[in-house]
Write a structure and sequence with these properties.
The chain is of the alpha/beta class and 472 residues long. It has two domains: 152 residues, 5'-nuclease (Rossmann fold), CATH 3.40.50.1010; 300 residues, P-loop containing nucleotide triphosphate hydrolases (Rossmann fold, 3-Layer(aba) Sandwich), CATH 3.40.50.300. Helices cover 30% and strands 19% of the residues. It contains 14 helices and 18 strands. The strands form three sheets. Strands 3-4-2-1-5-6 form a six-stranded mixed beta sheet. A hairpin with an 8-residue loop joins strand 10 and strand 11. Helix 7 runs parallel beside helix 8. It is elongated and about 75 Å long.
């Protein structure tokens, strides 16, 4: 039983899924104390076997707990709480200074006998209730990623919260969009304006208070569709900025592998994808906005025509929308092929062979394209390094921040990484729009001068798809 708790702090009872989701959660609650029920340790022990991300997280939690226990000499010290190390996990997070308590005695669980549900969940609820009654001066809070468990806690009058530490933003509406519309009187409010041409490109050097809110490689445009100016921010220094007019990929003579941009956001996406100085690009947008098509067109142009990259590598999370179809036969690439329907559909659009070449010519072109595109599974990415590759991560909204870091850090010199996704379509358990790995990288990369982001707004698939997206 707990013998020493500092009054005024909170006592946080952690559910198993919090530690399975983030092994470092033990050190992310600042000055507050943490309590681990024995049933949580039993569930961790049951989930340690396997090669999944969850199993690896469980084993990491066990190693953390083992390191903490090595410095404790007797059961009396354990009952008084194990001091959590004052380790600063990152510069944005304060140091932990609380204590870790374990359940060392049997607790009276005063819960309704007819309470249905999972026995482990009910045991945790009973422990929270017992702790609150035995320590009325301390706020006891159940921290869980399980929504239903938090609902049951609220019904029983117990305080519960979600695990917020992996939350990138308070509201998804605050997510960086990659573009900004200029005010109508923007040019009149500037303190200084200079323009020049360099290697056929037009640059402006401007000075004013508005540029303080801009980010590198951000799209800026004047209001209206006709005679509008579109530019990309190249440099930001205090109250001054250097901008460059974007390349217009709407024109047929500027088509990328036969593909032209249909709107402002698509045009800017192609500017980012074709820019050799931009190493990381993230494209957000609903279905039909052209994320995959634009990316593949830019990748094929720079790989086959410009010889800038050796090959294209495409990967995605294998999360089924319906029932799982089970194991698939064949090699790694053959197993991944059913998940790459978007790749095959877009290759059909991009494979526009001259009619005079016939079926043989079309097949030969298709074989050439597929020979330069490698399909890889996320499961075998750890430890690899990709040199001079164009890496496309599709359905990136289903990745956690840790998985996203693992993938992006695989890139070597001369490699470009493009993340595609729609944060409104998340299929991974315990991930939300504000905790997705895609949201994480968009927010963290927005100030890096070699990255770019744009949110595609307008669907260009068909009038049927546009109507369905808006009304269904």
């Amino acid at each position: 039983m707990i013998k020493k708790i500092i009054t005024g702090k909170r006592l946080l009872v952690l559910d198993t899924n919090v530690l399975m989701h983030d092994p470092t959660a033990l050190f992310r609650f600042d000055e507050h104390d943490i309590f681990l029920p024995m049933v949580v340790l039993e569930e961790l022990d049951a989930g340690k076997k396997g090669l999944s991300e969850v199993s690896r997280n469980v084993r990491q939690v066990s190693r953390f707990l083992d390191d903490l226990m090595m410095e404790i000499g007797d059961s009396e010290a354990i009952a008084n709480g194990i001091p959590l190390p004052s380790t600063e996990l990152n510069e944005d997070h304060p140091k932990a200074s609380g204590r870790l308590f374990f359940q060392t005695t049997q607790m009276v669980q005063d819960l309704p006998k007819e309470l249905p549900g999972h026995q482990a969940d009910n045991a945790i609820l009973g422990i929270v209730s017992s702790l609150q009654k035995s320590h009325p001066d301390v706020t006891v809070t159940l921290v869980s990623k399980d929504i239903n468990l938090r609902i049951k806690a609220s019904v029983l009058g117990l305080h519960s919260e979600d695990y917020y530490n992996d939350k990138v933003l308070d509201d998804v509406d605050l997510l960086y969009r990659g573009s900004v519309e200029l005010e109508a009187d923007f040019w009149n409010d500037l303190n200084r304006l200079e323009s020049w041409t360099e290697d056929g490109r037009t640059f402006y050097s401007i000075e004013g208070d508005v540029v303080k809110d801009w980010h590198p490689n951000q799209l800026i445009y004047s209001p209206g569709e006709d005679n509008t100016i579109e530019a990309v921010v190249r440099e930001i220094t205090d109250a001054s900025a250097k901008i460059e007019l974007t390349h217009d990929y709407r024109k047929e003579n500027h088509a990328v592998w036969g593909i032209t941009a249909h709107n402002r956001e698509q045009n800017f996406a192609l500017n980012l994808l074709m820019d050799p100085n931009v190493d990381f690009v993230s494209l957000l947008g609903q279905a039909g906005t052209g994320k995959t098509l634009l990316t593949l067109a830019a990748a094929l142009t720079q790989t086959i025509e410009h010889k800038r990259y050796a090959e294209i590598i495409m990967t995605r999370v294998t999360v089924p929308v319906g029932e799982d179809i089970g194991f698939l036969p064949g090699t790694e690439e053959e197993k991944m092929t059913p998940w790459m329907g978007a790749l095959m559909d877009n290759l059909e659009v991009l494979n526009k062979t001259d009619i005079s070449a016939g079926e043989w010519g079309k097949q030969a072109t298709n074989d050439l394209l597929q020979s330069r595109i490698k399909i890889r599974s996320l499961n075998f990415m750890r430890g690899r390094t990709f040199l001079n590759r164009f890496i496309i991560i599709d359905e990136a909204q289903n990745l956690t921040s840790k998985q996203m870091k693992t993938l992006i850090t695989r890139s070597g010199p001369g490699t470009k990484v493009v993340c595609l996704g729609n944060i409104a379509q998340i299929d991974t358990p315990y991930l939300s729009e504000t905790t997705s790995g895609l949201t994480y990288v968009v927010d963290r990369f927005k100030n890096w001068p070699h990255s770019g982001h744009i949110t595609l707004l307008r669907g260009e698939r068909s009038r049927l798809a546009d109507f369905a997206s808006e009304h269904l």
